[in-house]
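User: Quick sanity check before I run a bigger batch. Here is a single chain. Can you write out its predicted 3D structure?
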Amino acid sequence: MDFVFKTTGLAILALLLIPAAQATEFSQNAPASPATIPARLLTCVLGRATNLDPHRDQKRSEVIYEGSHKFALYLPETQRRTTAPPDPTEPPEPVDPRTKIVVDPDGLTKQVPSRFDRVIDLWPERVEMVTTIAEPVVNLIIVSDISADGKQANLFMTKATDVATLDLKNVYSGSCNVGFDVAGGS
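Assistant: Done. Predicted structure follows.
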């Protein structure tokens, strides 16, 4: 695994994959009350980034992706957050065990345990998820670019040792359709 420890890795992540938070709300079609976030099934097609350069700032349009990997993620219904998320150095909040990867036929997450260690669900702004593979390596998933109606999103996934240390050979990103009224991701 080639991990690159550069502060520009953080810039790559910020510029390419984590857009500025948007103040979006669900449309009237999304089955959510103000106090809850509905269960969601994200059905995605991911590609592997092949030309990330940690030594320069790249525009999203410059990144080349290869492959077409089916990937689906289930996020159960949860209470809308009313407090700030815990700091990354603080112990994580309990994670609903129903949160899971439900489709990964190409084995992008074959080394990843089935449970998530940390989930920060800030839907419809973003969702951040971490699973420890082998200390200190984690699998990082970020859902962002969520459409105003909540039916489309972007998913970014990589292995990392911290937010500035990405495994540049395992950076995946792609668009997802979001389904509501789903039971357990089946």
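The CA atoms of residues 118 and 146 lie 20 Å apart.

User: Great, the batch can go ahead then.
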